[in-house]
From TrEMBL:
This is Glucose-1-phosphate adenylyltransferase subunit GlgD. Its EC number is 2.7.7.27. Residues 283-351 form the Glucose-1-phosphate adenylyltransferase/Bifunctional protein GlmU-like C-terminal hexapeptide domain. Keywords: Glycogen biosynthesis, Nucleotidyltransferase, Transferase. The lineage of its organism: Bacteria, Bacillati, Bacillota, Clostridia, Eubacteriales. GO terms for molecular function: glucose-1-phosphate adenylyltransferase activity. The gene is glgD. It is an enzyme of class 2 (transferase). Belongs to the bacterial/plant glucose-1-phosphate adenylyltransferase family. NCBIfam families: glgD. GO terms for biological process: glycogen biosynthetic process. Residues 26-207 form the Nucleotidyl transferase domain. It comes from Clostridium beijerinckii.
Length: 370
């Protein structure tokens, strides 16, 4: 896919992510112990041979920039092409992705690529875009959208788009999943189209003033644009709420899901850090958990995701928890269905109980004490 430019659009819906996105973008939220959400789409693109990628981000991007560095973990630290980051830097309500694309249109015009792949960060999967591009070419349509048939739309994928087809399989409209039916064709918000058409869409959006997002233009002009749909048959999570983040992390504890997402043929890359191996004390007990390097475990952990450099004290019991890096949990504590953001400190003897539907979130660098 060297003839395709990748655009990662971070103009994403963060309304249901709460405290986790107060000081960071959704794309830089930690996931699966040692990764960030953006690692998955970046790895999917580079594994598919895309070596020119632009990330169009909103504000609160310090954490994201720190994580991306120069793009080296994804082999994007290049003199030519490689990784570029474009910041919205504007809080005006009328300023959306269309304006950011328009102000940086030279990134597209100078790319010399025939095709554009537009995608968000919050769709977690492991996908080969070479197959999508070949499918797109075979259809002869203006645009190809990627979708996933799901049987749990009444429990997950809330607010996601839903594709509707005609008898020939062409996309005729895009609705919204409001959770009434378990079966749905979930729009993964991944679009392949020619670069020239993408530029024309951006220019039309700006000149008409009718659309603030490129995907809005596409969805509302399917009477003039021809659109095909590529069915993705692998595992998919959409991280657009705290509950979705919790469920996705817990899902990685399933061996089948873990093996599919983190497979050797298409690895998920991330920023590497030199850490000592995790130390497990004689008093520790670990059941069905993912634990990153640099930790010290002295308590009991079951069905948990533990980030780097986390300390778990003696006689402490954790179940169904997500503990992000640099957090410290004292002795004799009990945590159940808790998400503790980076740098959290939970003093000895604390009991914190959330639920599967409503995990208890501990704000970044918070200190919880009696």
């Amino acid at each position: 896919m060297k003839n395709c430019i990748g655009i990662i659009n971070l103009d994403e819906n963060e309304n249901r992510m709460g405290e986790l996105v107060v000081n960071r973008s959704l794309a830089s939220v930690p996931i699966a112990a040692r990764y960030r959400i953006i690692d998955f789409i970046l790895s999917n693109m580079t594994n598919s041979g895309i070596n020119c990628i632009g990330i169009f981000t909103k504000n609160k991007s310090r954490s994201l920039i720190d994580h991306l560095t120069n793009g080296r973990p994804w082999d994007l630290n290049r003199k030519k092409d490689g990784l570029k980051v474009f910041n919205f830097g504007n809080d005006e309500p009328v300023y959306d992705d269309v304006h950011n694309f328009a102000e940086n249109i030279q990134f597209l015009t100078h790319s010399r690529r025939e095709y554009v792949l537009l995608a968000p960060s919050y769709m977690i999967c492991n996908i080969d875009y070479n197959e999508v591009l070949e499918y797109h070419k075979s259809t002869g349509k203006d645009i190809t959208m990627v979708y996933k048939k799901v049987n749990n739309a009444d429990e997950a994928f809330g607010d996601c788009g839903v594709l509707n087809f005609d008898d020939s399989g062409s996309v005729i409209s895009v609705g919204e999943n409001i959770g009434k039916s378990p079966k749905a064709n979930i729009n993964m918000e991944m679009y392949i189209l020619k670069t020239e058409l993408f530029i024309n869409i951006v220019n039309e959006c700006v000149s008409s003033g009718m659309y603030r997002k490129v995907k809005e233009y596409i969805h509302n002009n399917l009477n003039t644009l021809t659109a095909s749909a590529y069915e993705f048959k692998g595992h998919l999570d959409c991280i657009n709420s705290i509950k979705a983040l919790y469920d996705s992390n817990v899902g990685f504890l399933n061996r089948k899901v873990n093996k599919e997402i983190f497979n050797d043929e298409r690895p998920i890359y991330t920023k590497t850090k030199d850490e000592a191996p995790t130390h497990y004390a004689d008093t520790s007990s670990v059941i069905n958990s993912i634990i990153a390097n640099g930790c010290r475990i002295e308590g009991t952990i079951e069905n948990c995701i533990i980030g780097r450099r986390v300390y778990i004290g003696k006689n402490t019991k954790l179940k169904d928890c997500i503990i992000m890096q640099n957090s410290r949990i004292g002795d004799d504590a009990v945590l159940d269905n808790v998400i503790a953001d980076k740098g959290s400190e939970i003093r000895s003897g604390e009991t914190l109980i959330g639920s599967v539907m409503y995990p208890l979130v501990i704000k970044k660098k918070s200190s919880i004490t009696k």
